[in-house]
Amino acid sequence: MKPTAKSVLHDIFGYHEFRPGQEQIIERLLGGHHVLAVMPTGGGKSICYQIPAILCDGISVVISPLVALMDDQVAALQANGVNAVSIHSGMTRDDQVDAWQAVRNGTAKIIYMSPERLMSARMLEALSSLNVCQFVVDEAHCISKWGTNFRPEYEMLSELKQRFPLCTFGAFTATADEATRADIAGKLFPGDGDIIVQGFDRPNLKLGVANKNNWKRQLLSFLEDKGDQSGIIYCLSRKYTEEVAEFLNEEGMTAIAYHAGQDAVLRKANQDRFMSESAVTMVATIAFGMGIDKPDIRYVAHLNLPSSVEAYYQEIGRAGRDGTAAETMMLYGLDDIRMRRMFIDQDGEDDGHKLREHKRLDSLLAYCEASQCRRKTLLAYFDEQIEACGNCDTCITPPVRVDGTQHAQMILSAIYRTGQYFGAAHIIDVVRGSQNQKILERGHDSLPTFGVGKDHSKQYWQAFIRQMVAGGILTINIQKFGCLEISAAGREILTGNRNFEFREIPADAVRERRQSKKAARAMVAHSSEDDGLLAQLKARRLELAKAKKVPAYVVFPDNTLIEMASKKPANLDALAMVSGVGPKKLEDYGETFLSVINDAAMG
Ligand code: ADP
Ligand code: ZN
Q1: What mean pLDDT comes out for the span 239-247?
Q2: Is pLDDT of 573 > 50?
Q3: CA nearest 279: which of 562, 523, 524?
Q4: What's the maximum distance between 2 C-alpha atoms anywhere in the chain?
Q5: Were both Cys, which of 278, 336, 523, 547 would link to 305 (CB 3.0–4.6 Å)?
Q6: Burial level of 387, CB count in 10 A (0-12/13-18/19+)?
Q7: How many angstroms does the Cα of residue 204 sit away from the middle of ligand 2?
Q8: How many distinct helices (H) and strands (E) make up the chain?
Q9: C-beta separation of 559 from 323 below 8 A
Q10: Is 19 a pocket residue for ligand 1 (Cβ < 6 Å)?
Q11: Ligand 1 site, residue 72, Cβ cutoff 6 A
Q12: Among 437, 417, 598, 563, which Cα is nearest to 427's?
């Protein structure tokens, strides 16, 4: 019987069902139609072009921006018994010749390369003499100046269609708004082909945002049950990544810092370690991310405010690509808002650009302060409407909105009467009635608002002012050293023509219980003991991965091990039924994983 898309999915990749959109995209490509597919990260883009590549007669060329990404894709295909190669400058000349040979003699049908390599005159010439049926452009948004990651070397790809008019073009991206999509399609296959957009929702990602009041405590409590998983913690500065990594290591976790200031060798080693082990926390600046294709990242935390909703979504999107539950947490404070405003103002671009960037930041702040379902707010930004999700902090513990008009007036009055000249710290000192030197020198102790807010803690007022800023009642003036100013809406509140509602600030956000290092470690040990079999399966996976020098997930993704641990298959036939166990992996790894399951059952 002739293989079909569905049979390849099962017989080679060991999966039982297509994910949304996959089948449609595969069918269009197999029918010779050009396709631009926009799918969320983890949606399963690779299979959409790998199955057509396996099924069509000729060769498929996959264009990918990063060497690490190509190598991982090739390793993953080979683990499933599909012969693919990559050709890039990181390989020895001999390896490149071998790879090219495999393509020429038809043993490898899929070839990965970078755009600059492909578009060299020699490579184009060489490919013309072969039977190329499909070109696939991965991270296709890089071709567009409208997109978030324009790469000049991608622009050359727009000449491909003319040179290979009979080939089918597939393009894939996770981030492209409408203008960018049209631009990509217009460059790769003008006037022809389909644009298929899958929803942006990632229901397996749990969303959470909190006011940053004590990051160490907050981070520990977030990581409490995650000691045996891998995740990313994003920080704004290089120094901060080092500090956080050191802190976590002291707490008994395995954390590594990663930033652009490290030398390339160290960075590569850190990345390899993260990719191949399964319980490492990467504490990184945004230098870490592009091309991180690890499907079993279980959490992403932000210790600073990201730059925009798009960036935030892309960053948290690196978690849970295997479709299994993953958790996110963003901590932010007033300082973060001030920093972001400052970055925008310092950016050399024109005023229109700055204004747009400030507006984009406003959208992110609105998301942070959302009091309805957070996911709903997030997806609405991408023009997608959903019902309340039940898997975000605001769904799980709906925030209580209370009237804060009076408190807002205290703050506004203090700001007004001090000449809109001071930052939050000083304004808080005024309303809390601090007798410090700065207050006394300026005579601020004689203001009518002096001490009116002394019943609340400093942290309370910080959180309150942050909400006023996020709500557009106050603005931060970067030119004047980050002082707080009153907006038009703020004036209305001050004059009693408008009310201010805010999210109640829970007492425990102000005074969180201190967790001892020992308790944290005990938690971690406990949770891994709970999943004894899973831990053993993971340990075996790591041994195999190390021996083969591939990332652990190339052997089996987390999902597959979790299913194995719960179904406890007793023989090869039963093991073959587990999702992600194709024939090649069954042959290579079946016995060894069965013996782990068996030994565990014997106690
Ligand atoms: P993307 O490139 O869209 O971010 P990938 O192609 O890397 O996503 O796929 C993410 C993960 O989902 C991979 O581990 C992949 O093997 C897995 N996957 C893809 N399609 C399916 C499917 N139909 N069933 C189960 N798992 C799948
Ligand atoms: Zn929700």
Answers
A1: 97
A2: yes
A3: 524
A4: 90
A5: 336
A6: exposed
A7: 11
A8: 30, 18
A9: yes
A10: yes
A11: no
A12: 417
The CA-atom distances, in angstroms, between 101 and each of 55, 106, 108, 493 are 21, 8, 9, 74
Nearest CA to ligand 1 atom 11: 322
- Give the span between the Cα atoms of 30 and 479, in whole angstroms: 57
For the segment 386-440, what is each residue's pLDDT rounded down to a tens digit? 899 999 999 999 988 899 999 999 999 999 999 999 999 999 999 999 999 999 9
Q: Whose CA is nearest to atom 25 of ligand 1?
A: 15
First to last CA, the chain: 45
CA distances from 400 to 229, 371, 411 (A): 33, 8, 21
User: Tokens standing for 234?
Assistant: 């994003």
Structure-token pair, residue 157: 């790809």
Mean pLDDT of 518-545: 68
- The pairing of beta strand 501-503 with beta strand 401-403: antiparallel
User: Is the four-CA dihedral 100, 104, 108, 112 of positive or negative sign?
Assistant: positive
Element (H, E) at 256: strand 255-258
- Mean pLDDT across the chain, nearest whole number? 89
Q: For a substitution probing ligand 1, which of 322, 556, 558, 578 has the most ligand atoms within 8 Å of its CB?
A: 322
Percent of the chain predicted with pLDDT > 70: 95
Q: Which residue has the tokens 């038809």?
A: 106
Find the 327 Cα to ligand 2 centroid distance in Å: 13
Taking each helix axis as running N to C, give the angle between helix 351-368 and helix 458-470, from 0 to 180 degrees, rounded to the nearest 10: 130
- Confidence band for 147, pLDDT divided at 50, 70 and 90: low
- C-alpha of residue 40 to centroid of ligand 1, in Å: 11
- Cβ of 490 closer than 6 Å to ligand 1, yes or no, is no
The encoded tokens of residue 332 equal: 């932010």
Q: How many Å lie between the centroid of ligand 1 and the Cα of residue 531?
A: 24
Using DSSP's 3-state secondary structure scheme, residue 254 falls into: coil
What's this model's pTM, rounded to 2 decimal places?
Answer: 0.74
- Is pLDDT at 108 greater than 90 in this prediction? yes
Which has the higher per-residue pLDDT, 230 or 470?
230
Task: Judge contact between 17 and 140, C-beta under 8 A.
Answer: no
Among the atoms of ligand 1, which is closest to the Cα of residue 40? 3
Q: 181-195, 370-384, 563-577 — which is least confidently predicted?
A: 370-384
